[in-house]
């Protein structure tokens, strides 16, 4: 089986400071990879390098698109990379406001990616938007409301609907549950877990919340100071941490 | 005659503007940046159009200015006077006699010919501006031809109003490539953008020039199930009886009386001179 995404020696520095360095891993179709670490450990830098938002200083990100063979997304042309960002890839931002158009209705937000890939039938776009609102558990009669009128949790679910509407194969998520209260988080995680399994998505989830990766991720990478210090199956890493920093991380989780 | 160089601008500036115009004609619909000059009128009064006209005019030209179709509004009169004073060119109110027509918000009703140039005054040249505020991003979207966002605006229209309610500055795709703002002309005029005359668009404040060469293919954006419609008031002109011209609605009194008249004053006057009548043309007040 060829990996969907093969990352080799990704390095990004900001001047003398290290963003992330020497990161390599393979992600297979249908697999969810978690990346955890404290603030400033380089996990967001890594995610942005993978998603093409930042240009890495070295390394390769080989993606296997539907049509032709594996391509290096770091060296591919910008139009191709942006096309990938609208079709096979999706990016869920930590703050829904960064990923949504706040002045456009919920339906328009969901429809944007469809229209960007050439859908020109209003009825079809609207049906799909309504279908997706239902799938992310937002009342269908909110379809013409602007996201500004939505709660934080609804905005985040709307952002997810907007990203998944074109049926991507790889979803990048940057702290998808950050800033939400625990009951809303639980619903969102439920929803994400359902969608990931149902659509057979691969995902890379960056978070500092170990509970999120425990629920969603098959595999886990622990980052510290730009380096990957430990990687393995999620349960294995969380239940039997080997590296001192992972042990600290696991033991720092508050118990209720 | 006067102390001004021909058509106010100095020759170097006119050359610079002509270069931008030639480039704009070579890449239809593409917004060419140019070093817009300070003009003796405020932004929003047609500084872009005036500069393009100044660079286009020759002493043999006959010049016409219309503002919302009319020859006799403040904007039209003052720009016409401006070029009478600074260029000494002949001016006219008759569309067929003009060789250069500067316009704000309308295309004349009479079909223009190959020896005419239509110059538009453009307030905001960027069709994506109100959807995407970043200039760097809109430029990238143009260069990569990513225009899905334009349809988001039309989607919003339909979802809110049940139809595409954008009635002016209706976005068009030029010769299959660039999406262009045709300046705030009513969408009634959009089909006329495919014409025999050269069309030049000047935005002074935004420092952009773009153009449509004659016979360029111009398609108004729409949805398959909500096709583009050129709309006008469903009424004949009350002065000349024309059923095919774009109409202005004029409120007559506080009892709800109103009249519809051609916005193109030259078209209306010509028809009346030919003996056409409208509902109110016999009344003394008119």
From TrEMBL, chain A:
Keywords: ATP-binding, Nucleotide-binding. CDD domains: ABC_NikE_OppD_transporters (cd03257). PROSITE patterns: ABC_TRANSPORTER_1, ABC_TRANSPORTER_2. One of its GO terms (biological process) is organic phosphonate catabolic process. It holds the Pfam family ABC_tran. SMART domains: AAA. One of its GO terms (molecular function) is ATP binding. Residues 5-250 form the ABC transporter domain. InterPro entries: AAA+_ATPase (IPR003593), ABC_transporter-like_ATP-bd (IPR003439), ABC_transporter-like_CS (IPR017871), P-loop_NTPase (IPR027417), PhnK (IPR012700). This is Putative phosphonates utilization ATP-binding protein PhnK.
Automatic annotation (TrEMBL), chain B:
Keywords: 4Fe-4S, Iron, Iron-sulfur, Lyase, Metal-binding, S-adenosyl-L-methionine. Pfam families: PhnJ (PF06007). One of its GO terms (biological process) is organic phosphonate catabolic process. GO terms for molecular function: 4 iron, 4 sulfur cluster binding; alpha-D-ribose 1-methylphosphonate 5-phosphate C-P-lyase activity; metal ion binding. It catalyses: alpha-D-ribose 1-methylphosphonate 5-phosphate + AH2 + S-adenosyl-L-methionine = alpha-D-ribose 1,2-cyclic phosphate 5-phosphate + methane + 5'-deoxyadenosine + L-methionine + A + H(+). Its EC number is 4.7.1.1. InterPro entries: PhnJ. Catalyzes the breakage of the C-P bond in alpha-D-ribose 1-methylphosphonate 5-phosphate (PRPn) forming alpha-D-ribose. Belongs to the PhnJ family. This is Alpha-D-ribose 1-methylphosphonate 5-phosphate C-P lyase. It comes from Ruegeria denitrificans.
